[in-house]
Amino acid sequence: MEALSLAHHARRCARSTTTLTGDEVDRLDLDGFESVPEVAGIADTWWRGTDSLIAIYRGVAEVMHAPQCRTATIYAGLDDWGLRGLDT
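User: That's the sequence. What structure does it adopt?
Assistant: Structure tokens below.
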């Protein structure tokens, strides 16, 4: 439930949203990003950067043995409210 809520919040606050699939997901550079433990799951992981959130979904790909089903959504252009729900 937390991941769904974060996705909704990020989508509403992001200036741009990009979706990657398949091998593009593995090429994501997560240097400088920190994991978001509140929404860490078996099937998906979230990463927080200075102005973006990245959700990586691998569950369906692993269960179905279908690497082309890997998906990442990048929510970019976020302020502190968009990143953490903090008002600065």
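Residues 52 and 60 are 24 Å apart (CA to CA).
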